[in-house]
Design goal:
Blueprint lengths: L11 E2 L3 H4 L10 E3 L12 H7 L4 E9 L2 E11 L10 E7 L2 E5 L3 E4 L4 E4 L5 E16 L9
Parallel strand pairs: 2-3
Antiparallel strand pairs: 1-7, 3-4, 4-9, 5-8, 5-9, 6-7, 6-9
């Protein structure tokens, strides 16, 4: 694999067919909130949101910046395989360990590391332990993917 930018290997390895067939959470157990919770010029206290969250897979749009949104993810478990046909997606880990499975590799992110998934790339995200992440993506992105 070639890296663009700083050549730091975060944690990439091939994903076996067996691993791709693991069971994932039922979509009904995701707590996804697409409403924009904070307006411009309003303080966003991420830690307060993290401290009060009881959901296993929580996704909240925090704010909109131009044509993009910043979303907070607090999660433990596995999301389903999906893709976004028209939008890229950026993940940044605040705490915990966050894993992104692609069709031919897996990328493991630790705190203060980020990774961009280009539009059209099939992927699945996993959090083996409770993790807190920020996502930056186009405002039109449906978190569960394009059907």
């Amino acid at each position: 694999m070639q890296w663009i930018g700083k050549p730091t290997r975060i944690g990439c390895y091939n994903l076996s067919d067996e691993k791709r067939k693991e069971t994932v959470m039922d979509e009904s157990s995701y707590s996804i909130h697409l409403n924009t919770r904070f307006a411009p010029l309003e303080l966003i206290d991420v830690q307060a949101l993290v401290d009060t969250c009881k959901d296993a897979w929580y996704n909240q749009t925090l704010t909109q910046v131009n044509d993009c949104v910043v979303r907070l993810g607090i999660m433990q478990g596995e999301f389903h395989w999906h893709k976004h046909d028209k939008e890229d997606e950026f993940f940044y880990v605040i705490e915990g360990r966050f894993v992104i499975d692609l069709e031919d590799q897996t990328v493991e992110l630790m705190p203060r590391q980020g990774f961009t998934i280009p539009r059209g790339v099939v992927h699945r995200t996993r959090a083996p332990e409770r993790s807190v992440i920020l996502m930056i993506e186009g405002a039109g992105v449906i978190p569960t993917g394009d059907k």
